[in-house]
Amino acid sequence: MSERANIRDVAAMAGVAVKTVSRVLNGHPYVSADTRARVEEAMQKLDFRPSVAARILSGSKSNQIALIYDNHSPFYMFQIQTGCWEQCKQHNIRLLAQPVDVTDPTVGEQVRGLVTETHVDGIILSSPVTDCEPVLRALEALDLPFVRISPGTNHALTSSVFMDDTQAADDMTTYLINQGHRRIGFIKGHQSHMASEDRLFGYRRALDRVGIQFEPSLVFEGEFDFESGVRAAQYLLDLPEVPTAIFASNDDMAAGVLAEAHSRGIEIPTELSVTGFDDTTLARTVWPPLTTIHQPMAELAQTATEILIAGNEITHRRLPHSLIERASVAPPLRKTI
Amino acid sequence: MSERANIRDVAAMAGVAVKTVSRVLNGHPYVSADTRARVEEAMQKLDFRPSVAARILSGSKSNQIALIYDNHSPFYMFQIQTGCWEQCKQHNIRLLAQPVDVTDPTVGEQVRGLVTETHVDGIILSSPVTDCEPVLRALEALDLPFVRISPGTNHALTSSVFMDDTQAADDMTTYLINQGHRRIGFIKGHQSHMASEDRLFGYRRALDRVGIQFEPSLVFEGEFDFESGVRAAQYLLDLPEVPTAIFASNDDMAAGVLAEAHSRGIEIPTELSVTGFDDTTLARTVWPPLTTIHQPMAELAQTATEILIAGNEITHRRLPHSLIERASVAPPLRKTI
DNA sequence: ACTCGCATGTCCAGCGCTGGACATTTCGCG
DNA sequence: CGCGAAATGTCCAGCGCTGGACATGCGAGT
After folding, report:
1. Nearest nt (C1') from B61 Cα
2. pLDDT of B169-214, one tens digit each?
3. Domain that holds residue B111
4. Which residues does chain B have within 8 Å of residue A81's beta carbon, measured at their own beta carbons?
5. Where's the HTH lacI-type domain (chains A, B) (predicted)?
6. What would the pLDDT profile of B238-271 be if each residue is shown by its tens digit?
7. Between A51, A78, A286, which is nearest B286 by CB?
8. What is the CATH number of the domain that holds A217?
9. In whole angstroms, what separates CA A74 from the centre of its chain?
10. B19 and B73: one domain?
11. How many domains in chain A?
12. For residues B128 and B80, is the Cβ–Cβ distance under 8 A?
């Protein structure tokens, strides 16, 4: 009873040829609705599961795709994985989540290995693997379709989904300015993330628009993690003329700012406004809850997966972001400048 | 040049029989060190990657294991995945991370499907799937080795790794008592997590030991998430006689307590002590950083993977926990009782 | 009645590897 | 020197499925 059902068993039960079952399995045309139903019923009854291995070996699609990532933010990865997973589930395709280390000189080899070993049909690259040259080259050499989530560089030959980081940072900066802030600290992200530059650019653009002079000393280069947020806050709050608001380019760093401010007895948001970026669950978990940019990570992942599965032409899709007002921003106490 | 190398190619280059290459691949005895070296060199040069599919199909091991999870805490899953992954990498085996929904009536089927489709050699169950009857039954029917991470129920027929939740909760409670607290609120976790009961039991045991009367009204049943922590805090802080300390049985709920306290202007830890459980990165990210129990999640996952890969006899391994003192606990202001 | 196009069946090779059965050679050691 | 174990080879079937080539039956359109 526990013997795994065969395609032959299914054929027998449905009273059709093995070939027909195969046709049903692969969504061939030229199968009548009636036959298809009978076959599907038999598959159901026998709890038949086509062996992925056999299908791969016999040269068809593997019905597997891989998600390659290297990101140490649990939140980010969780959302991305979940987004991909949901889409895969609907299409009945299997997802292999594969962590890699972009700084490892053998990444390219690793990816090639993954592909040749598992015969995945396509690949989703999440940032920052999206801009990892060795991986990109390996994938191109293998001639495998892939789509990139939030790539930094543009690449006409490959699909991608992304949000407008520059505009989002601009929005946030403008929001802060509208609240009355003129002196706004900015915590930049790590260089390996191309988005870091875009966000900085958005910040500058918003400043320029209203004629606020950009001041390099107000920018601190962080690494997207909590600790660098703390360091950034230490730096910015020790400035001779301290900013009235700090715009961290992700939530983790904003949390670091919050922590440092707390430990100095600085009250948020009355004495200092803080904003994040990403809208990870962290933004709701810290105190006060962060005003931040909602980056639609799950949707990005879902869309990427859709595009990959549809697998037709190269697609580039921009998804909308939004500014989430919570409680970490208030007008400045003392007007600076 | 980009043609995938064959086992035949390797054999040819190494000047041996295909069978010998296969022997090397499968770690057979009766292969001289010299031959093995030659074969390995050839594999290297040709960048040969044995097709997982072919190996599975030909009836050998698949060199794949699956990690099955259903846990909405990104931190937890990230750590578990990372732990498994590292171990797998060392043994050169592939990890399939598979989310499921334990409340779905078809979980059993889903798992059976996963196994028969992918031919994984073994399975790692992370909490709460560890105690999901349908999954357990399916796995037993399939006669597949599996190991459980932090199972709630005991199961002599299956391997497991775990920590002593009761002792840990006891430790934490005792610590709080030693700081002078007598009236300690406890936020219980969700029932589906068996560990919830253990932690509650540890809390009671510590209370009993020093002769503090257990008070059911000081226990709030949460759901392991931030929001339920907030609700718990609202409840506990509205009690006629408010506790001087709140022990949340995970960090997310502790963060909720922190948030609620902040919004009421209650100062932590001077006016209220708060402790968490798990030592997720969240514990370091909130303010003040949480005194919590370090649950060795990555190690648990690693150990589980090791056991599964070694795959010999049934093993049960307890890993040590530790109490991490940070800044969310202080002696109570006013002695209660 | 005669095509078509659809729906299905038959037959067979082959994906890349392993396992079993067995043969052969080499080598150390008593 | 002879024997058994170690080291390798040969040969072949088969895992479960798909794809191609081709045959056939059947109903609809002209």
Report:
1. C18
2. 999 999 999 999 999 999 999 887 778 899 999 999 999 999 999 9
3. 64-163+298-319
4. 97, 99
5. 5-59
6. 999 999 999 999 999 999 999 999 999 999 999 9
7. A286
8. 3.40.50.2300
9. 11
10. no
11. 3
12. no
